[in-house]
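Table S2 (text version). Query chain:
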Amino acid sequence: MALPSLLILAGLPSVHAEDSAGQSAVEVKIFDTSAPGWRQLSGEDFIRVNGDEKTLTWDGTEAHGSGQPIGVTRTNFEVKNFELVIQWMHLKPAGNSGVFAWVPMSALEDLPPNQLPNTGIEVQMLDLDYGRMYTEKTGKAPTWFTSHGDIFAVGKSSMQPFPPLSPDGHRSFPSAETTNPHGEWNQYYVRGINGEIRLWVNGVEVSGGRSCSPSEGYLCLESEGSPIRFKEIWVRELP
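Corresponding structure-token output:
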């Protein structure tokens, strides 16, 4: 069930998508960013950390990422309790990117090119072909990651991930597979409240974790080697 123009908000009515047999498959939550408190972000709301002038370019409220060098672009404000909506699309097979939440300035200062922050919670954006190419290259099944919205603490951070878990227990694996392939838009709704983070992919809640540390900091858009586009980036800060 494609949701190109629908957004998500817990607490409002939901609809049930049906599978090919007509059976109820997933619960899809929908919402409207015209609700009080939401604001749309553009290039004026972000600051380059360790990329170059081509790493992330803006056309109004849409961002075009080259993927090079590896690194991040951060918001010019910090968040603690928040809701984030963002649409993203990988342009090539096996693209890798993501959004970092709650990244402290200490992990961003003097960060050299081709490195990612060593602190924060990553909400991964991974193309469906990544697993296939991983198997072709290694001869192994991709058991330690998925392409449907993994969430995990990076570096110095910590989180108690919600099940299902990755084999090592570090990642919250998605409970549903709702990601669209490269060349198609996906929508993430991320909600972080009091150190708990949850992710909805195309309207379906799939992963998350609690007891995140840190639980306050910057939001960052990730560059990780492959071209990507971002649009319809909305944030609502919560008490």
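Notes on Table S2: Confidence is low (pLDDT under 50) at residues 1-25. The radius of gyration is 17 Å.
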